[in-house]
Amino acid sequence: MTATDTTSSTWMCYHLILTLILLCRCQPDTEPEQAHQLIDEINDYRVADGQKPLTADPRLAKAARTQVEYLLQMQPYCQCVDHTGPNGTNAAERVAAAGYPASCVGENLTSDGDHPLDAIEAWKNSSSHRETMLGPEFTDVGVSIRGGLAAAVFACP
Question: pTM for this structure?
Answer without folding.
Answer: 0.77
